[in-house]
Design goal:
heterodimer; A: about 400 residues; FAD/NAD(P)-binding domain; Enolase-like, domain 1; 3 domains; 5-stranded parallel β-sheet; 10 helices; 26 strands; globular; B: about 80 residues; alpha+beta; Alpha-Beta Plaits; two-stranded antiparallel sheet; 4 strands
C-alpha cells in the first residue's frame, strides 16, 4: 500500500503509530511533525526520574536514530501544524508551507491547564521537556515549594521535591484528592503516604491567589491560610491541543471526536489517537478520552492496523491502564475505578507496603483494580477486565497469590 | 516441536533488561505466550527464541514497554 501518511505530534502515540505502520507493512511515506524541536521523548519520566535528574535525555528517548533510519520515518521537528485543510487534504505549517496527506493521524496530545493566578515568575506548569528542565533548575536552588493540585502529576512532583529535600506543601480543593479516582478508603492511604514523607497537605481548600515572584511567592488559601514558598507548581489538569483544528470542520468537543475505529467522525482517512482523541468506546458504549501512556500506544497500534487493513477494521476497546510512582510506592490502576460502588482491599501480611484494591460496579461486577507495589496481582486482575466477572473472581486470584507466597 | 536445524538457522531472540523492568506488564497483555511477571514484579521471558513470523508480534509487545526494557535481536 503506497500513499502518504502524515502524523501530527511526535509524542509516544505519534511515534508508535509510525513504527507500527512499518511493522504492519505500510510502504508509503511517513512524516511525523511536531512543534517542539527536541527529538521524540517520553513524558512520564518528566515528573519523576527526569525531574530528579537520575535519568538524562538519552534515557527518555522514544526512538533511536537507527530505528528512524531503518523504518524510513521522516521527522519534521520545530514545525507546528497551524491548520487542517480537509478539502485539499493538506496541513498548513504556519509560514513553512503545506504538507499533503492521504491519511492523517492527529496526535497532538494535551497541554497543562494554565495557571489562572497572578504570579508567573517561579510558577511552573509541567508538561514538556523544557518545563521539566526549568523546574529541575529551580528545585536545585529552592528551599520550598507549594504544589497546587494533588492528582498523579502533583503527587509525583511532591515526591520528587522531597527527593530534593524541599519543604513541600500540597494543596487540593478535594478533602481526599485521590478519592475522585479510587474512592475514600484508598484515597486516605495516599494522604497518609504524603504525611509519612513529610509533605504538608492542605486538602479541601481552594487557592484564592498566588502573588510575588520566585524566592518570595505567597499562596493564599480559601480558609485564609497564607503559604510562602520559593517555587510553585500548578498541576490542575490538561486541555486537548485541538485549537489548530478550529477552522477544519472536524467535530471537536473536549478532544477530536472519533468513531469506534478511531476515525474522526465523518472522515474515513483522518484518525486521532492519544490524549487528544475522544472516541466511541464499544464496551463502555460512550465517548471517552483517556490521558494515559498505554492508551496512546494501543490506539496507535489499532490505527496502524486500520490504515493498512481498510477492509478489516478493528474496533478500539481497550482496558484502561495507568501507573504512578510516588515515594516508595509503585501504583498501578486498571479498568474503571472512578465510578465504582465499592471495593475489597487485600493486604499482604508479609509486606506492609503492598496492597490491592479490587472494585465492583453497582451490579456487583468487577470493574477495576488498584495495586501498590504488587505488579503480579495487578496483571492477574488486569487480564480479567476484558471479560465479565463477579468481583469474587479477581479477589480469589489475589488470595491465591497470597496463599502461595512464602512467609518471610 | 524442536527441529534438527535449529542450530543452523538464525532465529530472532527477545531479551529483557531486568534493571529497567518496572513490572508494568504491558508485554504480558500484548503477548502472554512470551512474557509473564514474577512475584517480585519483574518480567519473565517464557520463550526466548521464536520464528520469524512472530517478529512483528513480539516487536509490538516490546514497543508497548514504558521503559523500553525489551529488545528483539537476531541471534
Amino acid at each position: 500500500m503506497s500513499s502518504d501518511v502524515v502524523i501530527v505530534g511526535a509524542s509516544v502515540g505519534g511515534v508508535r503509530a509510525a513504527q507500527s505502520l512499518r511493522a504492519d507493512g505500510f510502504t508509503g511515506s511517513i512524516k511525523v511533525i511536531d512543534a517542539e524541536d527536541h527529538m521524540p521523548y517520553d513524558k512520564p519520566p518528566l515528573s519523576k526520574g527526569f525531574l530528579s535528574g537520575s535519568q538524562g535525555v538519552d534515557r527518555i528517548s522514544l526512538i533511536s536514530e537507527k530505528a528512524i533510519a531503518e523504518a524510513n520515518i521522516e521527522f519534521l521537528l520545530g514545525t507546528a501544524a497551524t491548520k487542517l485543510d480537509v478539502a485539499e487534504s493538506r496541513i498548513v505549517l504556519g509560514d513553512k508551507g503545506t504538507l499533503h496527506f492521504d491519511q492523517l493521524v492527529i496526535a497532538t496530545g494535551v497541554r497543562a491547564r494554565p495557571s489562572p493566578w497572578e504570579a508567573t515568575d517561579g510558577v511552573h506548569l509541567l508538561r514538556s521537556l523544557d518545563d521539566a528542565l526549568s523546574l529541575r533548575a529551580d528545585f536545585e536552588s529552592a528551599n520550598s515549594v507549594v504544589i497546587v493540585g494533588a492528582g498523579f502529576i502533583g503527587a509525583e512532583v511532591a515526591a520528587t521535591a522531597r527527593h530534593f529535600g524541599l519543604t513541600t506543601s500540597l494543596v487540593d480543593p478535594l478533602p481526599i484528592p485521590m478519592a475522585r479516582v479510587m474512592g475514600d478508603e484508598v484515597g486516605i492511604r495516599f494522604i497518609e503516604l504524603h504525611h509519612r514523607n513529610q509533605v504538608q497537605t492542605y486538602f479541601g481548600m481552594g487557592v484564592e491567589s498566588i502573588t510575588g515572584s520566585k524566592g518570595n511567592l505567597k499562596v493564599e488559601l480559601s480558609d485564609g491560610t497564607l503559604l510562602s514558598s520559593d517555587v510553585v507548581v500548578v498541576g490542575i489538569g490538561a486541555v486537548p491541543n485541538d485549537a489548530w483544528l478550529d477552522s477544519s470542520g472536524l467535530l471537536i468537543d473536549n478532544g477530536v471526536v472519533c468513531d469506534e475505529y478511531c476515525r474522526v467522525v465523518g472522515h474515513s482517512n483522518i484518525y486521532a489517537i492519544g490524549d487528544v482523541a475522544r472516541w466511541h468506546h464499544p464496551r463502555h458504549g460512550k465517548l471517552v478520552r483517556v490521558e494515559h501512556w498505554t492508551n496512546a500506544v494501543e490506539q496507535a497500534a489499532c490505527v496502524s492496523h486500520n490504515i493498512t487493513n481498510p477492509d478489516e477494521l478493528h474496533q478500539y476497546a481497550p482496558v484502561e491502564y495507568v501507573w504512578s510512582d510516588q515515594y516508595d510506592w509503585k501504583i498501578q490502576l486498571a479498568g474503571i475505578t472512578a465510578e465504582a460502588d465499592g471495593q475489597v482491599i487485600l493486604e499482604d501480611p508479609n509486606n506492609p507496603n503492598r496492597f490491592a484494591a479490587i472494585y465492583n460496579d453497582s451490579a456487583g461486577k468487577y470493574c477495576g483494580v488498584v495495586t501498590v507495589n504488587w505488579p503480579r496481582a495487578l496483571i492477574e486482575c488486569r487480564k480479567l477486565l476484558s471479560g465479565d466477572y463477579e468481583i469474587s473472581v479477581p479477589v480469589q486470584r489475589v488470595e491465591a497469590l497470597l496463599a502461595a507466597s512464602p512467609s518471610r | 516441536m524442536v527441529t534438527i536445524l535449529e542450530g543452523a538457522i538464525k532465529l530472532p531472540i527477545v531479551k529483557a533488561d531486568l534493571n529497567l523492568c518496572q513490572g508494568y506488564a504491558n508485554c504480558v497483555m500484548e503477548a502472554p505466550e512470551f512474557f509473564d511477571i514474577d512475584d517480585e514484579g519483574l518480567v519473565v521471558i517464557l520463550q526466548e527464541k521464536f520464528d520469524e513470523d512472530k517478529r512483528a508480534h513480539v516487536e509490538s509487545a516490546a514497543r508497548s514497554c514504558p521503559v523500553s526494557a525489551l529488545r528483539v535481536e537476531d541471534e
